[in-house]
Amino acid sequence: MEDDHDDDDDDGNDDSNVVEDQQLERSSDVLDEFKVDILSLEDGPAARIVLYNVNLPRRLWQDESSLIRIRDLVTRDFHNVSGIYFQLSATYTLVNRENGQIRTWSGSFNPRNRVISELTSHSSFQPDSFVPFVLAHSLPDWVFDKLTTGGGQLTAGKTSVWVLDEVKSIVISFQARLGVSHSFFTRYPSLNWRARRSSQRHGGGGGGGGGGNKRGFGFQLD
Predict the structure, then answer these.
(1) Which one of 97, 156, 192, 218 is least enclosed by Cβ atoms within 10 Å?
(2) How far apart are CA 215 and CA 210, in angstroms?
């Protein structure tokens, strides 16, 4: 497991999850949005893996009505689907102790080293227990302690000039496998691209989309 916050990163050539301080103001505005990003991945001709990333800004961490909004959205969209899993991760800023530089780390489905920003392991989504679970795992002191002392997650056990500055948001990530006939794709037809491809063949629409093995979009929740 590599250390993305090690001193070797000081040359500024970090991976795309790290945003330099001149972009921090714009990034912070995005991280203050209560929104969901949805991605649909092809899983054979008859199924899709659907991913939801919900950004829960710090101002709403302990807001029960916002968590109920998320619970009801997932319950509605994944109606009668078994095997819905979710996980909490964090988005936070780091400060360089030597030069004061600030960077933002985003913890949403990072394929390289997600353990750095994970707050919980994957859990089965149960509507009755979801809200109490998130409330218990979004207490500011608990989140800060988890990121700084949870097995050395920020530094992977190595000495680093980067230290946790501020936690900006919690990302609640959901995942489920849906058949293409599920009502989800009636509600969000653009995510069932197989049907769209078929219509483009007959209508000559300007597809140009090459590789269409995934589709996604996002929307505000408040």
Answers:
(1) 97
(2) 12
More confident residue, 171 or 105: 171
Helix (H, G, I), strand (E, B) or coil at 126: coil
CA 5 to chain centre: 20
Q: Give the domain ranges of the chain.
A: 34-203+213-220
Full-model pTM: 0.74
Task: Provide CB contacts within 8 A for 159, sequence distance 6+.
Answer: 7
Classify strands 162-179 and 18-19 as parallel, antiparallel or unpaired. Answer: unpaired
The whole-angstrom separation of Cα 183 and Cα 189 is 9
Q: Give strand ranges (E) for the chain.
A: 18-19, 35-42, 47-57, 85-96, 102-105, 123-124, 162-179, 214-220
Residue 205 clears pLDDT 60, i.e. is over it: no
Contact 147, 90 (CB under 8 A): yes
Are 5 and 188 spatial neighbours (Cβ–Cβ below 8 Å)?
A: no
Task: For residue 141, give every residue at least 6 positions away whose Cβ sits within 8 Å of its Cβ, in sequence order, or none.
Answer: none
